[in-house]
Amino acid sequence: MKTNFERQQSSDASQVAQIWNLLYRRIGFCGTSASASALELSDALPITNRRYGRLQICAMRPRIALNPYPTGSRGYGRLATCATGFTLIELLVGIGIIAILASLLLPALSRSKSVAASTACVNNLKKLQLGWLMYVQDNNDSLPPDRGGREGFDVVGLNGSWVLGNPKLDTTTSNIQAGLLFPHVGAAAVYSCPADKSTVTGEPAFRRNRSYSMNLWLNAESHVGTYQDSINDQDYKLRKSSRIVNPGPSGLFVFIDEHAVSIDDGIFGIPSPWAAPEARSTEWWVAFPSERHNLGDNISFADGHVKHWRWQGHRTSKSYSGWQTPVVSAADRRDLGRLQECIPKTP
Question: Has residue 291 got a pLDDT over 70?
Fold first, then answer.
C-alpha cells in the first residue's frame, strides 16, 4: 500500500513528466533526439532525490532544466528538475530595475556628450582667436578683413577676407583654406563646432564646414545690398587693434558660434545703438547666435579668452525673417543688449 505522501509524490511527478512531454513535442529540447517515451516516470518515486532514466525530481521545487551530466551519473542523464531558474515575476522585476537604471544613466550620458561638444567648441574658438591675434601681430596692428558680398542670390565671403564662401553651399574646405586666417590656424576642422549637425543645402550627406562668424564692427566690408552695407563708412568700425578701447580687449567679442539659419559670409551682423541710435537698433536682429550648447553659445574675446553664455530668450529657424528680424520678447531684447555691450561704443 502506498501512503498518501507517496501517492501525492507520484502524482506530482506524473504532472511534471506530462508537461515536459508536451514541451518536448512542441519545441524539442536543445537538439536532443530522445523519444517522449523515454521521459516517462515510474509511479513509485521516493521522497529523496534519485535519478530515474533521464529525469531527476526534486521534492521541494519541481522545475525542469538542462542537466547534461548529473553528479555521479554515467553520462546518460539529460534533464533535471532541481536546476535553479527565474520565475516570471523575478524576470519582470529584473527588467524593471534595468529600465530604471537606464532612465537614470542615459540623461547623464547625454549631458556628458553635450558638455564634451561644448568643450571642443571652446577649444576651436580659442585656436581661431589665437590665429586672429597672430595675424594682428604680423600685419602692423591691422585687424583681419571681413569682406562679404553676393554671388548671384547668395551671400558669400569675398577674396581678401578672413574666410571665403558660404558654409550652406560649400562641400569642401577650399574656401576656408583660401582665407587670410588659415595660415595662422592651420586646420579646417577648427572652423566648425562639433555640435553643429547642419548640412549643406541640397546635399544632406555633407556636414557644413564652418559654424563661426566675426563681429561686424571689426574691419568688416559689406556689399550685400542691405542696411549692413552702411558699415563701410562707419567711424565706429575698428581697423586697428590699438583702437580697441571701449570696451577693452577683454570685453570686445570677436568670434561667435552663429545659428545655422543665419550664417552665410564670415560677418556676424549686429546693429549698434551707439552708431545709429535713430535706427531703433535695439529692436531687431541681423543674425542669430546659436543655442547649440544647453540653450547657450560660445564667444571669443579680443584678449584671447572664450566664454559660454546662456541665453534668456529662444530663437529658432522659423522665427528668423532675414537681416531685420524683430525682437519678440523682453528676454530676447536682453540677449541682444548683452551682445551689443561687447561691440565698439566709441569711434
Answer: yes
Cα distance between the two ends of the chain: 116
| DSSP string across 162-231 | SS-B-TTT-SSSHHHHTSTTHHHH--GGGGS-TT---EETTEEEEE-S--EEEETTBTEEEESSSGGGGG
Residue ranges in the chain assigned as alpha helix (H): 4-27, 88-138, 174-177, 182-185, 330-340
| CA–CA gap between residue 279 and residue 288 (Å, rounded) | 19
**Percent helix / strand / coil, the chain, rounded to 5:** 35, 20, 50
C-alpha cell at 318: 522659423
What does the pLDDT look like over 117-139, one tens digit per residue? 899 999 999 999 999 999 999 99
The string over 74-94, giving b where at least 16 C-beta atoms fall within 10 Å of a residue's C-beta and e elsewhere, is: eeebbbbbbeeeeeeeeeeee
What grid cell was written down for 205?
550627406
In angstroms, the CA 239 to CA 217 distance is 9
- C-alpha span between 121 and 211 (Å, rounded): 10
pTM of the entire predicted model = 0.71
> Is residue 108 helix, strand or coil?
helix
Cα distance between residue 184 and residue 329, in whole Å: 40
Question: What would the pLDDT profile of 67-87 be if each residue is shown by its tens digit?
Answer: 444 444 444 444 444 446 778
CA-CA distance, 224 to 156, in Å (whole number)? 9
* Higher-pLDDT residue of 71, 4: 4
